[in-house]
């Protein structure tokens, strides 16, 4: 459902602003994370091989690193208070990772 919305958005949103790519990366991260969280079941029932699970883990790591650059902007878009997001944040702009 989320991915369908991203596809629809891509029809009207200019690619140059990076919104669609960021939302697509979030969608991919969630999918890979969900697979990684349930790795035991996927491996037990041979849905994925250990090598494929390694690829998924690498993809989660890559996507986290990529999305980290816009983490403050993403959390600011939900208008959470800085206290909730991170006790180390300063006005939603400076966060120690």
Low-confidence stretches: none
Oligomeric organization of the protein chains: single chain
Content of β-strand: under 5%
Overall pLDDT level: 85
Structural class category: mainly alpha
How is this structure best described in words?
By secondary structure, the chain is an all-alpha fold. Helix content is 65%, strand content 0%. The protein contains six helices and no strands. The chain has helices at 2-10, 19-37, 39-44, 50-68, 71-76, 82-85. The longest helix has 19 residues, at 19-37. The two termini are 31 Å apart. The model has no long low-confidence stretch (mean pLDDT 85).
Question: Features of this protein?
Answer:
mainly alpha; 6 helices
